[in-house]
């Protein structure tokens, strides 16, 4: 076994204090004596009185040493050593540095020399009287002075060094603190940049992970800033069309904040709100985070003031899920809101702010469940506070319920699956009918062939094909127009596409001038020149805010210029612009516009374009490209001065420009609902409840237009004969003019292939069939049913004395299925029509028809129509028991 190698000279270890002192003192004494001898050679004080003669024991070479210097050197060295011994309890030997072998650590030598220096300095300040040679006790005085000086010198030096080191340490700490603050500031800026980029444009996956990681480790003040930024973005995105896509992009931010502090109720609540407003909404997740926020809520905390919104939004989410088993939980939430805020006040606040589903969903739920709610403790008081009327009497007849079910339409699921281009086209190809030989369609403006029946801006490049104005195609098959789109199969292998019918000349859709009137066409704007289409009182009543003269004049100019000149068009235009502008509070975008910098898709190619051309007007015109198009259209290049000019001069005209370019009038003319118009304006349904509220208000105050001559289409629908033809236009609007025509008694009296055939004095076959050859009935029973309902409708028209529009008539099973009708609809039997007044208030019209119609009736005024049918064999003013009634 190998023994460890033993060194001849073991490594020196620090000796005990006594040995250490003896060794170091001896070595220091030798050096001190040598130093005293050395400096004596240069001293002028050497003489017979100062030469040491009484110390024969001293070595020969010390003879002649100046006793003054010797005493000072010895005393100073001893003083320096004593200071270190008394203070530290040990002396440090000289040694070479371990870190750097070239550096010498002087150890106690430094203390000796510092002590000597202190001794000489102390002697130099000694009074002259104490320095006289020959004085008794001079040597003791000198030695004591040197000892004190050496000790004090070392103490002073240590104190000075300590101060210097303290300052160095303080400076280092300040430097470290400054560097830390600088680094922290850089980190804050980096996090904020990541958050802003995520909100504005979105981050890629790696950047998103980095942002979430940094947020989880960020300081509280950084989190607070980020939370406020994300909150504002979510709130603005929920209210504003331009920023609706930002709501979804705030979700990862709130998720990171929750991950960093899962016990923060505000973080959890905001994440829940974001899931409710996202597209598509994730209501289950919203509820789970709102549950957590409510659990964490601290009574009396500063955040508790608005915490009633936790229950309010949770109730909205639960209503959205449509789970009937949740009604106890929903009612508990509403009672909590009532206790913390007051439910009526909360609904009003949500209504003003346009919170998704707020007023509408909660009120509708209470109406639908008012029987049950009124039976609960304090339920009746809750209903009374928000002015819910008494519960309607339930329908007790089993047959009535059974008959009513056929008109129920399946509600869409809470989260619609995206329609792929292949399935969208394939599923509807069965509804295509063969086109007559050599049928051609032609684009009237630049447009698109599309793989899905949605706005072209929402489609990818591989899902649409641009078509220039004037381009034509030969058509093999085509479909019924649904929500403005037709499906066409083109010849020569060009494929099957959706087209927006208003952009094309379609031979199978004859105009109302040729085939009766399936809808009232837009009157020429010249008909209303010089006439305000809405009064100041009407406009201010809808918007809920006083208007300046410039705003009021621009509104009416806009309505005339862009032919927004029928009651439905005006109602929808006012309600949509009221929501988008927050009731005329925002004439231009709140944000700075910096988010649009460099957006080439908006034409912002120069520095500053984003801010200059940010959103302006009641439907925000955004981007240099759109500003230029509007300036060219309006022939006012001052528009290019930027957002302030547009907001002040053209707040409504700029919105009308968008309205016209997106074919909104045609959509309104087809009897579109608020939901359908909102989808076109918003791209989704953000703020639907608020838009519906504004629309309901518009329906209350705008019931007819200023007195004007009848539209040319109306005159065509009721041709003049005899004396009526010579009456003035004012008289024509008051005179009932009826076409002279043979009386139709049986289906054999009708040419069912001619859409212009009048089934009654006021209604053509084309109006019932929507001028669609596919709807022509070939069964005698169907033909008799159509004639029966049309005769009853003629009675309504005669008593009403004003034009009535048929929005839906006979629908074969194939078409009924394509438009989403139920399988046993009365429209399939030909016994039903959906109608609305051309110019009156549809709600008043519905109320009037309901009084005298003894057949079945569906209340669809909220959707723009009234459904009537003869399923029970009864009709207009027939008397007896009325048929079933139901809501759409």
TrEMBL record:
Protein name in UniProt: Peptidase M15A C-terminal domain-containing protein
Source species: Microcystis aeruginosa EAWAG127a
Keyword annotations of the record: Coiled coil, Membrane, Transmembrane, Transmembrane helix
Domain of life: Bacteria
Spans through the membrane: 21-39, 68-87, 108-126
Claim: Membrane is one of the keywords in the record: yes
Residue span of region Disordered: 511-532
Coiled coil stretches, renumbered: 161-188
Domain Peptidase M15A C-terminal intervals: 785-869
Pfam families with a match to the protein in the record: Peptidase_M15_3
InterPro entries per record: Cell_Wall_Dynamics_Protein, Lysozyme-like_dom_sf, Peptidase_M15A_C, TPR-like_helical_dom_sf, Zn_M74/Hedgehog-like
Composition-biased stretches (Polar residues): 517-532
The keyword GTP-binding belongs to this UniProt entry's keyword annotation: no
